[in-house]
Write a structure and sequence with these properties.
The structure holds two protein chains of two kinds.
Chain A (H helix, E strand, L loop, with lengths): L1 H6 L16 E2 L5 H28 L27 E9 L3 E2 L2 E7 L7 H4 L4 H4 L3 H5 L10 E2 L2 E2 L5 H4 L5 E8 L2 E5 L9 H7 L8 H4 L29 H7 L7 E8 L7 E2 L2 E9 L14 H28 L5
Antiparallel strand pairs in A: 2-11, 3-10, 4-9, 5-6, 7-8, 7-11
Helix pairs in contact in A: 2-10
Chain B lengths: L1 E8 L37 E8 L4 H6 L15 H12 L3 E4 L3 H6 L3 E3 L2 E3 L17 H9 L3 H13 L10 H33 L2 E6 L2 E6 L8 E5 L7 E7 L5 E5 L1 H4 L4 E5 L2 H9 L3 H5 L4 E4 L11 E5 L2 E5 L4 E2 L4 E3 L3 E8 L5 H5 L9 H37 L13 H16 L5 H20 L13 E2 L11 E6 L6 E12 L2 E3 L29 H8 L4 H12 L4 E5 L2 E5 L3 H12 L2 E6 L3 E6 L2 E11 L7 E7 L5 E7 L1 H5 L9 H13 L3 E10 L1 H15 L3 H15 L4 E12 L3 H10 L3 E5 L4 H10 L8 E3 L1 H9 L3 H9 L2 H5 L8 E6 H9 L3 H11 L2 E5 L3 H14 L3 E6 L5 H6 L2 E5 L6 H5 L2 E3 L4 H32 L1 H6 L12 H11 L1 H10 L5 H6 L5 H4 L6 H26 L6 H23 L3 E2 H21 L2 H6 L9 H6 L2 H28 ...
Parallel strand pairs in B: 19-31, 19-35, 31-34, 32-33, 33-34, 35-36, 36-37
Antiparallel strand pairs in B: 1-2, 3-12, 4-5, 6-7, 6-8, 8-17, 9-15, 9-17, 10-11, 10-16, 12-13, 13-14, 18-37, 20-21, 20-30, 22-23, 24-25, 25-26, 26-27, 27-28, 28-29, 29-30
Helix pairs in contact in B: 4-6, 5-6, 6-13, 6-33, 11-12, 13-31, 15-16, 19-20, 23-24, 27-28, 31-34, 31-37, 31-38, 33-39, 34-39, 37-38, 37-42, 38-39, 38-42
Amino acid sequence: MVKQEKEFVNRPDNTAFTQQRLPAWQPMLSAGIIIPGFVLIGLAFIGIGVALFVTSQSIQVLEVDYTGVEQSSPCFKCSDPDVKNCVCKMEFNIDSLFKGPVFFYYGLSNYFQNYRGYGVSKDPNQLSGDLDSFKVPSDSCAPYEYVGKTPIVPCGSVANSMFNDSFKLYQIVSGAKIQVTLDGKGIAWWTDYNVKYRNPSVTPLKNAFNGTVKPTFWSKPAYELDPTDPANNGFINQDFLVWMRRAALPNFRKLYRRITEGDYAKGLPAGNYSLEIAYNYPVLSFDGRKKNEFLGIAYLVIGSMCVVMSIVMLIVYAKFKFPEEE
Amino acid sequence: MVLVKSLIVSCHCRIPEISSANLLTPFNILQVQVRCIGNTGCDTGAFTWEKERGGAGDMLHQHKDKENGGARMKQKPTSLHNVMAMEIFESGLSWEVRANSRHYHKHKQKKSFLCFHWGRYADNVVHSYKYSPLTFLPLTLFEQFQRVANLYFLLMLVMQCIPAISSVPWYITIIPLVTVLSVRGLKDLVNDMARRRSDFEVNSRPCDILVSQSFDSAQWKDLCVGDVLRIHKDQVIPADLLLLCSSEPHSLCYVETADIDGETNLKYRQALSATHTQLTSQPSDETLAAFDGLLLCEEPNNSLYTFRGELHWQGECHPLDHAHVLLRGTVLRNTAFAYGVAIYTGADTKILRNCGKQRVKTTQVEKVFNRVVIGIVLSVLLVALLHAILSGVFSSQVMGNADISSTVVVNANPVYTGFLTFWSYIILLSPAMPIALYISFELIHTVHSQFIGWDMEMYWQPAGRPAQARNTSLNEELGQVGYLLSDKTGTLTQNRLVLRQCCIAGEIYGDASVRAEDVEPMDLSWNPFSCGGLHMSAPSLVEKLRGQQCPPSRQFLTALSLCHTVVTEWKEEALFYQSASPDEETLVGAARELGWVFLSRARDFISVSELGVTRQYQLLALLDFTSKRRRMSVLVREPEGGLKLYCKGADIVILERLHKDLQYQERTERALELFSQACLRTLCVAVRSVPEASWEQWRKTLAQSAAMATCDRDALLEKLYDQMERELQLLGVTAIEDRLQEGVPETIALLQQAGLKVWVLTGDKKETAVNIGYSCKLLDPDTRLLEWQELRQILQAPDPGVSFFKARQMELWAVDKKMAGAKTAVVLTGPELAEFDQRPEWGSTFMSLAEHCQSVLCCRVTPGQKADIVKLVRKHTSSVTMAIGDGANDVNMIKTAHVGVGMAGVEGGQAVQNADFALSQFRFLQRLLLIHGRWSYRRISLFLRYFLFKTCGFALVHIWFGFFNGFSALSMYETWFIALYTVLYSSFPVMCLGFFEKDVSAESSLSWPELYKSGQRQELSSPLILALSLLYAVYSSLVLFFIPFGVFYDTALDYQTMAFTVAMAATFTATIEIMLLTRNWTKINIAAVCVSVVLFFIGTGITHSTVLFKKAPADYIFIGVLAKAFVDPVVWLTALLTAWTAVLPSFTAHAVNITLTVHDKQKVHSISPQPVELKSTFRRGTSLRRSPNALF
């Protein structure tokens, strides 16, 4: 026994791992699997593409450009930055019923909300209700950190540049204007509203802002953003939250309101409408764009490519496999 | 070449008492020793100073130099000290050693503190470890930051700490960097601990040191310069010693130098006669303790074969050379005791001075990849610069607009903005430079090396030795070897010689067609000296011998037992032979088995027991072996009184010196032919009766000529020897098998099929090398041998290529129709190769010719030339070279080749010590190259390509995003994703690919050696392939950005959702791509793929969680994104489409590949392996016989 052990001194272990003999599956792919597989994947993509395309077609979109670049535009007078408290009206017509729920977006073009320096220009601690950061905002907010020696709350570029146009929508029924109720609740992310942004636990809220100033661009302080609903003020104001969630690309839209209540909950009936805009936000350029059909089309393209490729492959394969028959 | 003065004493000696000559071993062949002992004639000996060439590595020359036997040179006693000072100045003998004065040397011992060193003499402690607890951290960090990649990432880290440019937080880089540094540091630490242990083991070996009148047992580390030591038999010598005296007569002693030069034969060392006579007259410790000689010698150096010094003792000056010195690392043999005084200790010893640093070898793949990485870094710099400029332009444009959007550009100055953006982009794009790659690379290499060690089929059971990967970073190189340069003795052959056949008086005994192991052992129980080991069955011969029937056979055996230089040794009541030449040992051993037992060798007598009767032959002269003479003879006086000359040597030499009328010549020549066809080494044995008168005259002439000047003397001696060795009577022929190692022909055939060029480089003679070439299938029977003269003509021709092909079809070959399609092999010898030094332009021509040749055999090459051949191949081809050898003479070439393999064999461990891989058998190369090498190459190439793809594809997205975020270096990903993507989300499957991937099984790899060629052609790792991977990565980064861009453009979806979508698409892309690459799905592969995807969602879920956000709101700003995106079909559909489109080219390429190629691997699986043709063919006899002579 001892001798036998001695004979195998230093002998490597005979296991599947050390001998590289782990049981393994080696998929043997052949043209017979690959080509039909390609076709199937292609067809699946086309299917998804068609579904997406149809869905996007069924979405009704109406865009109204109120930038006011053209002189004919009702908002032209407001496009001059020197004009304050300008209100303009855009009239438009709906041919058929807009099925509810109708979403009301505002859109900006060539607006680099995704500029890195812009994005970091805020104080997360301040926005989560830390009173210490009210007094001494983070350096990242510069140059929107202090006015003189008084700290700005909420500080930073993002907050400072908050979109502040406001809209009212009227349906014109035989010359009379009927206001369409716009619902501003629940347009922000749940986590933003409940976790990420917190007001300091001081009542009334106004006291928390003692010794601070509002952002230079704002007309109202943070605690007075929504005079109609006291709970919709401070950092958890829905419009503020929507704005603070930065857009991915320079052309973007943000949800403004939803039409979910009252007479218009089922949709906007055909007819004439008037949009009353409190024009505050100094933006110049705006390109109108159609609804987004990109994803559906992309699926269609890629799916078709797969199918075409598989056909090409099939032809090549046939030629290659049976050359002697020709 | 260093010119060193040394003393050659040529003695006018009547009887050369012990003379050793080596037959046929590669490097000992020229070693000749003429030793003069006794007083006769020596006092009148002429002293000649001769310049002698020396230099490490040039062993052949070294052995040519005659060793100095009984040098004694007495100078007139002078006023010693006056002269000494001058001598030191003049001769450079500045190393002073005082025997037995420990405090003198101790005082001057080398010491060091921090970086200050002082003192002169090194202590005998080996420090090969690098770190101490205090220095580990700084040293390891210093070493690691010498690697550019680590330094680069440290720089990134520093930059990330600057808020103005920090596009990614600092902790993103520190996680991988710290991991890399600590893994590497730990590995170094473990290695260092191992070194510490082995140092401790060496330093605490025992030795006997003379301390005040008696020898005390001490340890090596206690030894100090000037100490007198006693070395026991078989003890390793602890320092370089001057031999004072030994237990043997004349203070001779024998050392084995296997650890220094790999030669296992014994070397003689002899003490000065002065120390010998005075110290052994009253052999006691007191006389040694009283020894107060002063040694002056040269400064410590690394030359193993030279030594200069003087011993000043008792008012006399004795010159010393290397024959008086016992080197550290050699082993005392056949000598009971030897006494010596330590000259050099520890780091000053010759062997430690020779321990050069292992050259760092990097593989081809790594080199290509490093270039690609440099390319990536440059592109990153370029892109960063471009974006920096554009960012400056952008910010200046925005500044022009005095509206709200100018608030986004916080910094006023466009140039400053651009400057900051530049650094930000460098940080942001740094993940494109894969830091994790280097550590994963190392890990995969380590595992591959382990696989080599773990392979049961490369485990050599008789020695209990598994294969060993000593260098763990060359694995993939094993899959690309184009040239295999092999040593012969001990590598292709076992270096175990066996007498297989003999021919006595025209009668052939033994049968070589039976394998040596299968030979039925003869009944030799009648012979008390028999100890087995005769692989020849010839009962008829034994019968004849015992029956006293055949006088020639008895004489034949007498010749074998007398004509040699073997030394005997009694160990445990058994007789052992030791010889400088294995051939002689074999022959003497065989004679002993057959009843002619060589018992002992005294000064001028040889005792032989012939069938139990002990006879004493008086040894009159020994005409030693040289490579030029190719024979040796002994002249003896028989007990009956007659004079006999026994001679043995190469067939050509002996046959032309035979007596005219011969009975058996024809039959013997036929036997010779037969033997060489069976690839046996042959030696002819002959005898001559010498008349007393002619001996007397010859002796006188010899005495005269010995007194002459060296150059004339050699020629004269040769002539004189020639006179004696003539009119010989042929006794017979011995046929020795230099047994090939198991599986050598199969291995060589397989490797040649795999596209490897196998070259043999040997110190052996041409005939032997060619013979071995045939027997191991390196040369085919119809292979044409192209020798130097012809080759030279071709090389000198204006258009070598044309004349080469012309020569192939030339008359010789055109005549013989069978030879028309013959293959060619080049046979070169060392001196011929030396011509290449003068004609460097021949190198490339030669290599282009050699490419068309089946093989190249280089014979009689020195270790230095072996390395030169490797260099030649490396210089003129782009192929990977592999050198394999077993002896110290191969060390040089092993170090020079891309990959060095050491055979752990009979010879010392030098080759293995310096090799990258150690094998026990030549045939293990099959598995090492065709299986481990091929797999490693494939795995590592795929690994690198995939790594490049996944990191670049992922990082380059930022370039495209830059165009749509005002070139502001905003990250497209959540910062945590960047950190975790390389470490967690995409690393496991690729590691599994690196560990387990195989395209075909081990068995198929061996039966389809052609598959190996893809590695030689660099099919998987060429710069083009890597560039394509890079291009593919760029494509996928475009897809990764622009499809989500199209979807998210002008929508209400926010930046964070897009970041998550792109991240998910990137993870999916990486996962699908690795699934496409993996062909061998073990459970671990499947688990790794699943775990990666699951980890992505878990990891993202954690970093998007409320809990973490509450702890650090600034670091976990992606709170809630996963929950929101998870239920959004747009995100999923976008990610799916993006991932699919990103891998579409790869998928299509795979599909096209499958559709178009006739399935190699399916073929491999379906067709059974063909056995390698192994039948030995005897047709080649004709061409072989012709080769050395007839060709010219």
